[in-house]
C-alpha cells in the first residue's frame, strides 16, 4: 500500500538532510546547534486507533509526557487535534507549544500547497508571538 501524498512519517533524519535544512536557514539559536549532526529519539506508541488516533511518549525518564494526534471528519474537511499532556512544568510546556505551533504551520502549508518559509524562521516568529503574549 502506498501512503497518501501527505502521509506523515515519524523517522530519523540523516546528517545530509539536516545539514540541507540548516543551510537553508538564516537563523539558528545556540540551543538548537546540538542537532546539526542529526537527531535520534525513541518513543513508545501509547495509543493506536487507525485512522483516527495515534499517541506516543515524548521525552525520557520514568514518566515521559505524551503526544496524541486525532483526526475527525467534518464534512469535506478533517479536524486535526494535537494534545501534548503530562508535561512536567510551565517552562517545558511553553517550549513545546512554540515548537508544535511551528510544526503545525508547516503541515498546514504542505497540505494547502503554499510556499514555505524555512522552519527556523517560522519558529522565530512563533517564539516572538508567544513572548509578546506573555
What does this structure look like?
The structure is a single chain. The protein is built from three helices and four strands. It is α+β, with helices and mostly antiparallel strands. The protein has a domain at 43-86. A hairpin with a 3-residue loop joins strand 1 and strand 2. Helix 2 (90-111) crosses helix 3 (119-133). It is globular, with a radius of gyration of 16 Å.
Spatial ordering of strands, largest sheet: 1-2-3-4
How much strand content do the residues show? Answer: 15-25%
Radius of gyration: 16 Å
Flag low-confidence runs: 1-10
Instruction: Work out the helix count.
Output: 3
* Rounded mean pLDDT score: 79
Secondary structure class reads: alpha+beta
How far is the N terminus from the C terminus?
A: 46 Å
Number of strands: 4
- Helix content class: 25-40%
What is the ordering of alpha helices and beta strands? HEEEEHH
Main sheet makeup: 4 strands, antiparallel
The rough form would be described as globular
